[in-house]
Specification:
Layout lengths: L2 H28 L14 H42 L2 E2 L13 E6 L5 E7 L6 E5 L10 H9 L3 E5 L4 E2 L13 H12 L9 E6 L1 H12 L3 E7 L15 H21 L7 H4 L8 E6 L10 H11 L3 E6 L7 H4 L1 H15 L4
Parallel strand pairs: 1-6, 4-5, 4-7, 7-8, 8-9, 9-10
Antiparallel strand pairs: 2-3, 3-5
Length: 350
């Protein structure tokens, strides 16, 4: 559930509270005790007890009604947003005229038979990095990373994730099924004689980073992982809420998990916190934005939670000026140097 859905829920809840308040006032007014005799100076205990019982009943009704409205709206909004979030995101991907290196246009199959489209650049230093783009984009979203890596002698395989760009797929699953694409990418690299499979790494942003971590836990051939702003796989991955709004956001993600399982007829993968420990002892660098957004804060908490579950093989780099995957914009030189140094160290390169 995204922040726009949270805003809609908040507005609806406020409206619901106002309606319930008006209803309570109406009920209290309509249930006045009708007596033909004047009221005594002091209320009788029986009348006090009866009034308290009415108030308690109305309060209990209001609480349950509010919970019902809240749950109903969360389910409705998640089902409404599901269509957009799971729909294919096709786009034409042309080789930019100003791309500073040559690419080979390639296709390969995912482990479940989808045709995936991408670009391949052979390595000059013996190591190759698979690049994974954010949700709803295509391989061009990782152009900057590719330019830095190729400039340092790395080979790259950058491709459109399933149901995105020029790759096949009838729906997107928020990264749940995408590690199968990484398996296909590794099979493609194995068939290339120029690729040293002992020096293959993976890097991604946002959902791409989440897929990269899932893939590294699944495929031991991936020797190092650069994960910038990795999203959650399941609601359990999210850090402990800091305020009512983040609690609402986390609760909404539990419903979103259920929505994806029901609507896509999928068995949800295990949460990241259960699988990230399998990557050890291979190195991980988790990158996060340190600049907080209103109410929800920064993504540092999520990144550090992953690092705690990953183990000593994981490093954390929080970029103070960044929000989410915008490190190349706010600190391009430092980002490039740190990424290259990370992979150089992982693969024993200078």
């Amino acid at each position: 559930m995204d922040t726009s859905n949270i805003t809609q829920v908040a507005v609806l809840l406020v409206a619901g509270v106002i309606v319930l308040f008006i209803y309570i006032l109406f009920r209290l007014r309509s249930q006045k005790i009708k007596e033909t005799q004047p009221e005594p100076t002091l209320l009788r205990p029986r009348k006090i007890r009866a009034a308290l019982i009415r108030v308690a009943r109305l309060s209990l009704f209001s609480v349950f009604a509010l919970i019902f409205v809240f749950l109903a709206m969360l389910v409705y909004l998640n089902f409404a947003s599901f269509k957009a979030e799971s729909a294919p995101a096709p786009s034409q991907v042309d080789i930019p005229a100003d791309l500073p290196f040559k690419v080979e246009e390639v296709t390969f199959q995912s482990e479940d038979g989808l045709r995936l489209a991408g670009w391949f650049v052979p390595s000059q230093n013996g190591a190759t990095i698979i690049l994974l783009h954010p949700y709803g984009g295509n391989r061009l979203s990782m152009r900057w990373h590719a330019e830095q890596l190729v400039g340092a002698g790395y080979g790259v395989l950058m491709y459109d994730e399933r149901a995105s760009g020029e790759s096949e797929g009838t729906y997107r699953s928020y990264g749940w099924e995408d590690p199968r694409d990484t398996g296909g990418a590794l099979a493609f690299l194995r068939d290339r004689q120029e690729v040293n499979m002992e020096k293959v790494g993976i890097a991604g942003c946002s959902i791409g980073a989440q897929i990269a971590l899932q893939s590294a836990a699944r495929y031991p051939e991936l020797g190092a992982v650069w994960a910038d702003g990795p999203s959650s796989v399941r609601a359990t991955d999210m850090p402990t809420p800091k305020n009512p709004l983040t609690a609402l956001f986390k609760f909404g993600n539990y419903i979103a998990d259920w929505t994806y399982e029901v609507k896509l007829d999928l068995k949800a993968p295990p949460p990241m916190i259960e699988t990230i420990g399998r990557i050890a002892p291979r190195p991980i660098l988790l990158v996060g934005g340190g600049r907080p957004l209103d109410f929800v804060g920064s993504e540092e908490g999520n990144v550090r939670k992953y690092a705690n579950y990953a183990g000593e093989n994981a490093q954390v780099w929080i970029i103070p000026e960044a929000v989410h995957c915008d490190g190349p914009d706010v600190q391009p030189e430092a980002y490039s140097q740190k990424m290259i140094a990370f992979f150089n160290h992982a693969f024993g390169l200078k």
